[in-house]
């Protein structure tokens, strides 16, 4: 399906030589080209410090597409794609040089999407440069990546900079999880199916688990990660965003601000983790050496440089979160994320309660309850485990668990990956898949107070062997409530 009409914007990418652009943005734009989702006349203006011509930049693009595209390049598409590119040599700290960018933009007098694929400390320079040449007019849009800061205070500084030069409805803060098909489907699944909608509350749901696990370690991001940690990198953004989508109330309309208003209510309802309850509600870990896919891997400290370095940075965190509102109070949400875990996966598990009055009580009480398993990656899809009578000549009470399965791969629908989807929504001006300023700041507020609490009580990460599901204490977090992690 081609969206119609496709709006005409020029896409200006700052940080054109960077990792994000090469690995994610260029392949996503190429895929959108191949699916005819980019306006015929859209130009892609790549801004960087390298002294490249547009042609040299296109050579670089081709090399990166060969490396990062998961399919063969179609050269008839690539030729159209590369004809869109203009390279603009610019160091953003030199505001006068934005004249060159203005010159390119004004040639076609186009509306612009500015994608800031740059470190946050460069944002004020970009904004000042754009302002100097009136390039931040109300028709323009600006896209920034998570993480927005590393604390409430730093996120406010970044948001203040952006807010000085752009209105909130021009700012698109990316959390790429919000572009994943299964995440998009969360609201449809919850609110379009009455049998789910009616049971999506504390009366029917026992507990929820969310796991975002990685096999990788630092992958060269040594300084960034050691000063950030897994909590700031993954929980503040992806995990809390998922939690809001799982728990938010039905918005009265499918509209960006109305949806985000509901998410904000959840962020305000998160029970604070304080120094009085932090030890009961979180487990921190740091990976030790071990094996991933049978290959030996080093410890975190070794990945940092050597084993004599001291670092309390957590590479794993499990948290028991409670949403303190009428719909959810008393339901635990167990969330965990870590590096060098047994396998890479992103999953939401919803455990339903057993009906204590059901006529199969003896049999059911010895079995697990109904489960909904939503897989965000790999193999996007969802599965519901239900009980059925075992066919044949057995006792009529003999039950088996079967699964109702839906897999996106098998559905044959046009499938956009997260960055393709998000680009498309920026072009369409749909902000519902982007994070509003108040969401970012409320999430940081909750994270900051949890981190202060664990520092206050001097909690340190526990070592866990690489290639496992994290420290044993993570299991205890659930076991003490009579529950277990779902480790597929
Ligand atoms: N990489 C990812 O997968 C990923 C994922 C999520 C979020 N992010 C976020 O996305 C942003 C970019 O990340 P990245 O990994 O792509 O970083 P990166 O590889 O370090 O690239 C940053 C780019 O910014 C350019 N740059 C820096 N200062 C500049 C200046 N004064 N003028 C012009 N260009 C300048 C650099 O140019 P030079 O090449 O000339 O140095 C480089 O090309 C960051 O905010 C990051 O947190 C990245």
Summed up:
The protein is 38% helix and 21% strand. By secondary structure, the chain is an alpha/beta fold.
Which helices and strands occur, and which strands form pairs?
Layout: E1 10-14, H1 19-34, E2 44-48, H2 54-68, H3 75-82, E3 85-89, H4 98-108, E4 112-116, H5 123-132, E5 141-145, H6 152-165, E6 171-174, H7 181-192, H8 194-197, E7 205-213, H9 222-247, H10 256-269, H11 278-281, E8 282-292, E9 295-297, H12 300-304, E10 316-322, E11 332-338, E12 345-352, H13 361-365, E13 371-377, E14 381-389, E15 399-407, H14 418-428, H15 437-456, E16 462-466, H16 472-479
Parallel strand pairs: 1-2, 1-4, 2-3, 4-5, 5-6, 7-11, 8-16
Antiparallel strand pairs: 7-12, 8-9, 8-10, 10-11, 12-13, 13-14, 14-15
Helix pairs in contact: 1-2, 1-3, 1-14, 5-6, 6-15, 9-10, 9-15, 10-15
Query: Strand pairing plus helix content: what structural class?
Result: alpha/beta
Main pleated sheet: 10 strands, mixed
Q: List the quaternary state of the chains.
A: single chain
Number of domains: 2
């Amino acid at each position: 399906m081609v969206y119609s009409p496709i709006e005409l914007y020029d896409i200006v990418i700052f940080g054109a030589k960077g990792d994000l652009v090469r690995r994610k943005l260029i392949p996503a734009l190429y895929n959108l080209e191949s699916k005819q989702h980019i306006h015929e006349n859209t130009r892609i203006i790549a801004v960087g410090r390298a002294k490249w011509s547009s042609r040299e930049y296109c050579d670089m693009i081709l090399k990166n597409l060969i490396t990062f595209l998961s399919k063969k390049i179609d050269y008839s598409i690539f030729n159209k794609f590369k004809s869109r590119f203009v390279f603009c040599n610019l160091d953003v700290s030199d505001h006068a040089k934005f004249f060159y960018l203005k010159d390119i933009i004004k040639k076609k007098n186009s509306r612009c999407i500015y994608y800031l694929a740059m470190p946050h400390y460069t944002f004020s320079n970009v904004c000042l440069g754009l302002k100097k040449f009136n390039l931040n007019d109300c028709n323009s849009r600006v896209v920034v990546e998570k993480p927005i800061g590393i604390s409430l205070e730093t996120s406010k500084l970044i948001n203040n900079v952006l807010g000085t030069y752009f209105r909130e409805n021009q700012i698109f803060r990316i959390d790429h999880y919000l572009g994943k098909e299964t995440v998009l489907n969360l609201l449809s699944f919850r609110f379009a199916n009455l049998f789910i909608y009616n049971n999506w509350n504390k009366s029917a749901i026992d507990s929820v688990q969310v796991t975002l696990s990685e096999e990788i370690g630092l992958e060269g991001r040594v300084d960034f990660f050691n000063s950030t940690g897994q909590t700031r990198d993954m929980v503040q953004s992806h995990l809390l965003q998922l939690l809001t989508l799982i728990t938010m109330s039905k918005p009265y309309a499918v509209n960006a601000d109305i949806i985000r208003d509901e998410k904000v209510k959840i962020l305000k309802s998160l029970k604070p983790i304080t120094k009085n309850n932090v030890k009961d509600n979180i487990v921190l870990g740091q990976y030790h050496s071990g094996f991933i896919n049978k290959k030996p891997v080093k410890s975190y400290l070794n990945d940092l440089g050597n084993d004599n370095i001291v670092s309390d940075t957590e590479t794993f965190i499990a948290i028991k979160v409670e949403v303190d509102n009428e719909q959810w109070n008393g339901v635990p949400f167990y969330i965990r994320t870590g590096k060098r875990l047994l396998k890479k996966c992103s999953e939401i598990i919803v455990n339903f309660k057993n009906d204590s009055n059901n006529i199969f009580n003896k049999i059911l009480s010895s079995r697990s309850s109904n489960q909904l398993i939503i897989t965000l990656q790999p193999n996007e899809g969802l599965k519901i485990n239900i009980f059925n009578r075992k066919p044949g000549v057995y006792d009529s009470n003999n039950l088996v668990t079967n699964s109702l399965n839906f897999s996106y791969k098998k559905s044959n629908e046009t499938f956009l990956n997260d960055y393709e989807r998000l680009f498309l929504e920026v072009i369409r001006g749909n902000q519902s898949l982007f994070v509003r300023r108040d969401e970012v700041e409320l999430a940081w507020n909750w994270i900051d107070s949890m981190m202060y609490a664990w520092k206050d009580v001097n909690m340190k990460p526990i070592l866990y062997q690489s290639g496992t599901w994290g420290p044993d204490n993570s299991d205890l977090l659930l076991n003490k409530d009579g529950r277990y992690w779902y480790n597929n």
